[in-house]
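User: My advisor asked me to double-check a structure prediction for Probable cytosol aminopeptidase before group meeting. I don't want to rely on an old file, so could you generate it fresh from this sequence?
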Amino acid sequence: MEFNIKSGSPEKQRVACVIVGVYESRKLTLAADLLDRVSNGFIGDVLRRGDMEGKLGSTLMLHAVPHALCDRVLLVGLGKEREFRAKEYREAVRASIKALTQTSANEAVSYLTELTIKKHDVEWMIEQATVVTLDALYRFDRFKTRNDEAVREPKKMTLAVQRRSDLNDGEKGLARGLAIAEGMRFAKDLANLPGNVCTPAYLADTARDMALSLGAEAEILDEAAIAELGMGSFLSVAKGSVQPPRLIVLKHYGAKDKADKPVVLVGKGITFDSGGISLKPGEGMDEMKYDMCGAATVLGAFRAAVQMALPINLIAIVPTCENMPSGNANKPGDIVTSMSGQTIEILNTDAEGRLILCDALTYAERFAPATVVDVATLTGACVIALGHVTTGLFANQDSLARELSAAGEEVGDRAWHMPLFDEYQEQLKSPFADVANIGGRPAGSITAAAFLSRFAKAYDWAHLDIAGTAWKSGKDKGATGRPVPLLVQFLQDRADIATGNVVRRGRPRRETSDAIDDDAD
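Assistant: Sure, here is a fresh prediction for Probable cytosol aminopeptidase from the sequence you gave:
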């Protein structure tokens, strides 16, 4: 789809469809009112007949509106005007795209982007509309030989701004939105691939090709190199599969000084998780191809950041392998030695994500990072705690947690700060090793984060548990692309602070950080 930014009156648009908003109680937005006036009250008459009341997300397509130059006018319900906020804006945009795809209109101009939302500017409005539009249009049909449910996608979408002086900010928002949407698409495409296609080697090759195509650096470590690093915990998971592991390392040096401390993103890349010897139930096991969503979102965020040319140094680290049952697989009771030298008693082989992440977190130390954020579909317990709405957020610095939480709020990709008190470490005690890989059913997502925190003491660190937010089941089954928007906003905020730019969108400057089964991954 081609996007454009334009300033112009809605009644003068010679296009297949013009999109305008209507608040509850049939109150017209400015764009809708202009069309109503030129049509001698046609839109108001339609609304008075009761066909639409402005309920949030409702739509009504009008044809042949008198004296308007467009073929169609799509009315979109905005809900109560006093309650119209960022969340409602995204919902209205999504509803407009859904309705548009039910028509044969191949071009549209949306005036929803002219609406006013407190604390958000033109750049944000355009960015969010772009991201939501492309997310709503996303389909994964690579393996369908025939698709009877193909969605009609308009060839051109124009996003309107009120003044010509807004065009420059609108173009900036569009560029950001396209980069974020592309990062989400990249992440969703990877996650939706079946495990027999998206193997560790495939993931590594795809990541390398993506990075090199954007001018970033890529290093792929094979099994021998991983062993040479002493990553015994990571390799203990990989040895159960015939698919060899890979350690993916991507580098973007966008800061003026390449010596500036980088932000490091670490993504869990279990391309298929059977549970190992602690085998998962068969029902729903197909969805364990999504156990590499942490890796996919880190790679998607990296892609977006490089495409946006963010002026920061950024490292992406992805340990990737399969977790399979075999004669070589980990057994409950096995003890392995991590790269850090700490020994781990494996009480449950289905808690394998933390076993590969701990070595990746140790590896991150060599970059002397400003901060490290790991992303993982880590625990079913997090789904029980937060459902499928909010990502679990843990950190060893409260200021870092606030940064990430605020970034998520800004883009509608929420995370909730969970506790990480020292007392939870008691549940991880082992009589035979330095630490056990599970801490029992109570506080399962917290003890998983507590385990990881033992390997992240050398730097500021946060952990995002996306087990409930990375994909959907049921009729809408598929990867969501979360938390790519959160991560990109976090990186943008870091870049703004590092370069001393005026804080965007009127938000207060945030401080930088200071110095499945309930237990199963």
